[in-house]
Every structure is written in structure tokens, then in C-alpha cells.
Known about the structure:
By secondary structure, the chain is mainly beta. The chain has 2 helices and 9 strands. It has a 9-stranded antiparallel sheet, covered by helices on one side. Strand 7 and strand 8 form a beta hairpin. It is elongated, with a radius of gyration of 16 Å. The termini are far apart.
Amino acid sequence: MGKILTTTLFILFATCLNAQEVISSEISFSIKNAGIKVNGAFQLEDATIKFNPDDLDNCTIEGSIKVNTIDTGIGLRDKHLKKEDYFDAEKHPLITLKSKTIKRNDSDSFEGVFDLTIKGITKNITISFAVNKTDKNQTTYSAQFEIDRLDFGVGSDSWIMGDEVKVFVTLVTHTLSQN
Length: 179
């Protein structure tokens, strides 16, 4: 479950050409536990998005989520996930994501290599994401990707809980100013 949170960090999109403010975000995950899909979510802590599809070399996407915001709908499970053997929220309160490179797949589809840090462990992950300008001042960024929770020391090897965490991120930004 912890690695789902990590993916959630992908969370970070913005526009290089225009200053962007995140006005809404949804960071959720799913993982199999005892053969049943368990869903959860995190809250976005901070995001900086500098994204210009015509100048990808100068774009950056960064963000973080607070581990303590994990919500699976079961308080006791959430409390357990914050403990040392899973996310260790006391020592590692944030999950962070930072772009390294971004390339275009097609007109509104992009792929980025990101540094994802969970529990102090940083791994490179590749995330495909879509960028859709919904009107003159708003842009929606969306991504779906998978991570292996064991790569980040979230929980241990288990025949009950799956290793793969699916992460879903949607961010809506508002253009603050034109540069």
C-alpha cells in the first residue's frame, strides 16, 4: 500500500510558459490484499509545475504528499501504514517526486523520468502523463503508473499483500500570469 502512496507523488505538474497554481488534486492508489483490491488516497502537500510543451528541456514537475494523509477508509489500517514497517511517517513524513527529463509522445501525451523518494529511498521511475487544456486558464494533468512497494521498503515480502501498487494522479491547475 505504501508504494501506492509513492506513486501518488507523481502529483507534481506545472507550466514553464505560465505560472500555475494547483486548484484541485486527486492522488489515489490500489493494491491487492488477500485477493481483494484495496483503494486509498493521499493529499497533495506541495507542487511546482513549470511545463511548456514547446520547451520540454526547461520544464520541471515537482511535488510532495504527506504520508500522514493516507486514507484507505479504515482508520486502524491507516494507523498501521504510518508505522515504521510501512511508511514510517515519523521519520519520513513526505513522499516526493521530481522530474529529471520529459519528452513528448504525441500532441497531449508525455513521458517523464522522475526521482520518486519514499522512506528515504530514491528510485527513477518512468511516468506517462496527459496534459489537457480545459479552457484558457485551466489545464488538467493526469497519470496512471505502477510501482513496486518493496523497492521502497514499504512492508515486507508477503503472500497476502501484492507488491505492485497502481497510482492514479489528476491535477488541475490555473494560470496565474503570462510570462
